[in-house]
Each structure stands twice: as structure tokens, then as C-alpha cells.
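Write out the 3D structure for:
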Amino acid sequence: MSNSEQEQPVFGEVGIVALVPDRFAGAWQPRHQVMTRLARYFPVVWVEPARSWREKLPNSPSRTGASASMGAPAPSGLMVVDPSRRYPKFHRPAWLGELTARARMRSAVRELRSAGCRRVVLYLWRPGFSSDLDRVEHDVSCYHIDDEYSFSPSDVPLSALEASLLDRVDQVFIHSPALMEKKGALNPNTSFVPNGVAYEQFATPVPEPADLAAVPHPRVGYVGFLKKQLDWELLDQLSRRHPKWSFVFVGPRHEHPEIQRVLAAMETRKNVHFLGGKPVTELGAYPQHFDVSILPYVVDDYTRYINPLKLYEYLAAGPPVVGSPIRTLQDFEEVVDLASGAEEWSGALARALGREANSPERVEARREIARRYDWDRLVHGIARDLVGHLGGAVEGRLDAAVPEPAGLDRRPRAAVDG
């Protein structure tokens, strides 16, 4: 369902307050993909992360712009608001911090009320928003887990804060098999919602980007943040071992001190190309024009819990995919070649560049998997869970207004495959 087909939300009387850790106009994350699509079902207020009173806040209305170089315009039905322009964040004294936090929440709800919403859903994307459950009246609450928020390379127990939140909310969404195994039994209303792909954007052929056209084939490509969770020592070895292969990295850098040395060394090689970050609307073009796409993660207790967004985007694009044997990728071995160490990676990449891996049948097999994870399908499942909690006439209108997409299956692949 495109915005042109559905300009107004289906359930105009129910609004969502999205409590997110990112500014809407930054690099798009799974929460951008989910909330922009939920705005087709319900009016959504995207609440920008609260800014401290110490920051220079412009004297302008609380509603913000909705696009930037890394993002895309907000769709009809989604309002981007920044209540901290009027009610900034205070850490001390505690009473003032709580007063302004409540004021920010009431401001967000007023936006929904002014749009005609009579019922409110609080949609939390981090444990740190748990206090907001007590700051404003609401009808339904949900918590969406799209990462292991300890960010620790060694497994740590569930925090008391997150355990309490899981117990309190009406609905939980979890995005990876390993996180389901760790946290999925703590709330009876828990659904598996993996990352997905804007399938048509990544699968529809588009011209080669100008900055990629100058890079020689074969191209071994990565799209995403350049961060410490990638195995840079491995990438350094591979780029030295295979000087006739072009290693291409598309994405902004995280300023992690641990990776600066190896990045600086790789930048000196003629076969390594750092193309920088791109707007979300342009990302689909790059993996289409790679010869092989890579998911080169360090294997540890943090990456065990991730579900890479780019996995589904790579599969939709068509070329072969090689990755590290992290938990999520092990469920996709029929379409992703897994490798450990430089020797195995060299062999896997060589196979990926061969004729068999690029046959029309193998390309279609990868795309068929990706189709199952189209964001429209996944978000329809989220909407179904939300209207289930709302009940009554709202629940009965969902399929009449938006039929369930064919092939929707929300179980982890390990369960699907039996």
C-alpha cells in the first residue's frame, strides 16, 4: 500500500506516540521503517530525543522538519515533534527533570488529540523510556526490542529495568531469534518481528551510482555503518590478500578508536574504496551493482543477538552474500555462504564470484527469501497485534481496510523450518 493509495491513516481515532532514540532526519534505522509504515494505519507522533537545556535550542515551534541528507520525508500520518524545544531536559534538580519530562509527554499526546485521536498507544524503543509509562494516560503500551541494549561483547543478565518493562507493557516485539530465546518468554504477548527490506526499492533494477561506476570489478561490497562490530582485521587481511578484488564500503563511520588504525591502513590501498554515507532513497542501487555483498561481523555475544537489516536488502538486490556465522545468519545458510577466518572467507568469496552462484535460479532463490521480509508485510503484523489490544470495532476493520499480505509468517526461521 503506497502513500498515494492511502493518504490518511486507516484508524484515525487511534494515535501512536513513538519514543525513539534517533532523530527522524538522521540515518534510517528499523524504527524509521516501522513507524513510517504504521503511520498508514494510525496517526504517529515521532518524539525526537530530548535535548538538554545546555544545548542551543532554536526559538521555533515544537514541530520539526522531516528530511535531511541521510533520511527521507515523513509520510502523511506521521508528525515529527521536538517537545524539548519548549521543555528541555534537566538532570538536576530531580523534580525539575520530572516536571519537564511529563510536559514533553503531554505535549506529544496533545498533538494526537489535535489530530482527532481519542485513544493513545505508547510505542517504546528503548528500556530508558520505561518511566514514560507513568507520565501520561494511554490505552495500549508496547516495547520493541531491536538490539541487545547492553551492547556488551560478553553476555550479561537481563537488567532489572528491562525486566520490569517487559512485565509491564501490553505487547512486546523482538527482532532476532537469539533475543527471542533470551527474552521472548517474559511477556505472554510477545511477537517475533525481524528486520526487513523495502523489497521493490532494492530489487527493482536501477542505474549504477556514479561513484561506484569508477570502481573496477569484481566488487566485494558492504553497505551500513562502519563500526567496531565488523571484523576489520579480517577485512584488512582480505584486501591485502586479494589486490585484484575491489573492496567497497558504503556508509558513515562510527568514531570507534579501536578501528581507526586499520581503517587508515586500508585507505592507502588502491583496491579499497570508502564511499561514505548515502541517503536512504539511494541505498538500493549499491548492492545491485556489487559482485558479492558481505556481512563480516566479529562473532561474539553481542553479534549473536543482532539481526542485520542489510541481510534482507542484500538478498533482494540479487548478488551472492557471504557472512560470518553469527546466530541469525545460521538460519539463512541456503542463501548466505558462511565463513570463519581469512582462508574460509577467501574461498567463499571466490565461489560467490563464480558462475553457479550467479545463476538466475540462485538469484531468484535469494529474492524469494527477501520477499517474505518486506517491511509492508512485517508492519501489517505489528498493526494486527495493536488492534488486537484495542479490540472491538477497531479490530474488525483491519482486514477490510488493509488485507493481510500474502505469505506473512512471523515465526523465527528455525521454527518455520521445523
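Confidence is low (pLDDT under 50) at residues 1-6, 65-69.
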